[in-house]
């Protein structure tokens, strides 16, 4: 269906589900004469989900005023054009123009909220680890937030890599024993290190947590000292720097090389695990 029907003389809005093509989206956007500024990241996020077939009809509607003005949905319509696919969308017409002031007033549901609704254990930690693993896989190894995964992309990653559940467990247990490293970074590092050596990764984070059975000069002792010193001196350590600490420690352990200090300037290149 390509025709938008707008009620002319009724106060009751009309609702229908339509297959919105890029051509129809472009036509409707010509009626977008009174709206907020576009957020390019939102368009990109929506478009990736649409192109990947992960967009779901969830009751959120494209909304039009009685005079045909587009009130809500400009980001979704731009995303349809960017993804170049037809997407089923709910369309509401016949709304009073002033209702636009009340639209999008609620708090956006996060990936952590979605996983919590699924009944996932440690939903917030799970979501934050998935986000950083996804960013790492995209080449954003310093977690600069150039591209943030959507909830659908996080869910797809978890389905593809169910072993991430184990990384969440490791992150939680390590944090319970040693609260000086972010759980999201511990879980991300565990997953990445496990790709190299699963057993070594488990041993590594057990020792990060308890510091036991380590001789003087052991890299994990240097790591523990560094992050405890950072905390004692109230240094704000960004996530990518914590990740670099763990990678430098891992590489030293893997090469059986003693390490007395962990150094990683915030602007230094990210080391790669070996």
Task: Please give the domain count.
Answer: 2
Poorly predicted runs of 5 or more residues: none
Cα-based radius of gyration, to the nearest Å = 24 Å
Beta content: 5-15%
Overall, the morphology is elongated
Number of helices: 11
Name the quaternary structure. Answer: single chain
- Helix/strand class: alpha+beta
Approximately how much helix is present in the residues? 40-55%
Average pLDDT for all residues: 91
Tell how many strands the DSSP assignment holds: 4
The description of the largest β-sheet is: 4 strands, mixed
**What is the string of SSEs from the N terminus onward?**
EHHEEHEHHHHHHHH
- N-end to C-end Cα span: 55 Å
Strand order within the widest sheet? 1-4-2-3
What features would you describe in this structure?
This protein is of the alpha+beta class and 274 residues long. 48% of the residues lie in helices and 9% in strands. Strands 1-4-2-3 form a four-stranded mixed beta sheet, with helices on one face. A hairpin with a 4-residue loop joins strand 2 and strand 3. Helix 7 (164-177) runs parallel beside helix 9 (198-210). The protein is elongated.
Task: Kindly list the characteristics that best describe this protein.
elongated, 2 domains, 9% strand, 11 helices, alpha+beta, four-stranded mixed sheet, 4 strands, 48% helix, 274 residues
């Amino acid at each position: 269906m390509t025709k938008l029907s707008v009620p002319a003389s009724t106060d009751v809005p009309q609702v229908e589900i339509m297959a919105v093509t890029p051509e129809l989206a472009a036509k409707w956007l010509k009626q977008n004469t009174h709206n907020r500024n576009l957020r390019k990241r939102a368009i990109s996020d929506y478009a990736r989900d649409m192109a990947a077939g992960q967009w779901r009809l969830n009751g959120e509607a494209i909304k039009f005023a009685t005079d045909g003005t587009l009130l809500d949905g400009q980001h979704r319509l731009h995303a349809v054009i960017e993804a170049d696919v037809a997407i089923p969308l709910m369309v509401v017409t016949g709304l009073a123009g002033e209702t636009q002031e009340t639209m999008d007033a609620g708090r956006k549901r996060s990936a952590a909220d979605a996983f919590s609704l699924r009944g996932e254990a440690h939903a917030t930690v799970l979501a934050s680890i998935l986000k950083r693993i996804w960013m790492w896989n995209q080449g954003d190894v310093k977690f600069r937030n150039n591209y943030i995964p959507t909830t659908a992309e996080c869910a797809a990653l978890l389905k593809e890599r169910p072993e991430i559940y184990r990384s969440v467990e490791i992150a939680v247990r390590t944090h319970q024993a040693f609260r000086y490293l972010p759980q999201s970074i511990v879980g991300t590092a565990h997953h990445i290190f496990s790709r190299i050596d699963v057993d070594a990764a488990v041993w590594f984070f057990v020792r990060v947590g308890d510091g036991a059975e380590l001789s003087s000069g052991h890299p994990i002792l240097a790591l523990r000292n560094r992050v405890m010193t950072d905390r004692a001196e109230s240094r704000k350590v960004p996530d990518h720097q914590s990740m670099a600490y763990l990678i430098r420690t891992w590489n030293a352990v893997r090469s059986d090389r003693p390490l007395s200090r962990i150094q990683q300037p915030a602007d230094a290149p990210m080391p790669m695990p070996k």
